[in-house]
Amino acid sequence: MDTTTLCIPLAHIQTYFDLRKSIIAQVDWLEKRSQLKFHNPHELLELIIGLNPEQFYQKAGIDYRTNVSHCFISVEQCLSLVDQAISALEMPYLGLAMGNLMTISHHGMAGVAAVTQPNLGRCLETISRFCHELFPPLAMMPRVEGKEGIFAMTENISLAPYSHFFYELNMVSFYNIFLHLVGGEHELSCVDFSYPEPAWGHIYRRYFRCPVRFNQAETCLRGSASLEFYELPLANRLMAMSAEKTLFENIPTRAIRLLPLRLRRLLLRYYGAFPSLEQAASDLGMSGRTLRRKLAEDGTTYQQELDQVREKLAKEYFYRGGTSITQLSIMLGFADSSAFAKAFRRWTGLAPTAFLEQQQMSDISN
User: Fold this and answer.
1) Could you report the per-residue pLDDT of 146-158, keeping only the tens digit for each?
2) Is the pTM of this model over 0.90?
3) Fold of the CATH domain 8-229
4) How far, in Å, CA of 165 to CA of 161, rounded?
């Protein structure tokens, strides 16, 4: 899968750019909701809710048709849409504003299915699964580490130069949904962004009640691990099942058929004892020969996918405070620490010790 792979359902992307479903057409409301003042609010409102859809999509090379349900677009086309919107509005921080305007209802059946789960942990797992199907370039991963709960976001495919747009939109949107679900009972400990603070960094802090940190190990929301079992006020098992069924009946997906992504997810489950190519192929329901051929058709190999997973896990190990290179080498299936160090230097351009020192210095400065 690369930036030209048609893998993103257009019907899902339309929820980003057709905010008419959730915006009240009043300038005062817009300014209050987005917490921003605009030089020409009437024009901005019209631009946000009234961009000519035919021209908007055509400029991105998308065959736009109303209510299209089986159309998929690529990362390149999606980034073209973002570029058009940011340029038209002259708002580099558009992701923040759009994320704050999006409500649970704006996420449609995906939102309903998520917020009707029995607890917050299941809600985040549902969001993670939906992200894999509806927007495979981005991955969302909930996890618990000791007393801390983390909901992290990362890119499967580079979304540069607009990575920040997708992180801003999703972080603000999910933060607001969190507040809606838990009310005033709890607050997150902080929100982290893995990139340097942009020129509009001060605007970030208008949207979060908790500390905002940049240049962090990963982009994520952080809070108490106990929130995993927080019972959601809208919990309804039958409604959750019905909403998910309706969602995927109306928005077909392709991510489940993207073999490199399926393989990576499989390898992540084997952390500490990675399978052979033949075993992985068997788990994926095919022969080793077929797996090799299909991966080659996607421009990759089993070893390249395994290395991507190993690199990801190695970095996460250091980000989370791990320091034993020998232990990490064993967990990642290397013969010895020397072999691991050689591979790590190939992935990152740094020796593991240098990367670890860099991470420790970053922790101290923050």
Assistant:
1) 999 999 999 988 8
2) no
3) H-NOX domain (3.90.1520)
4) 9
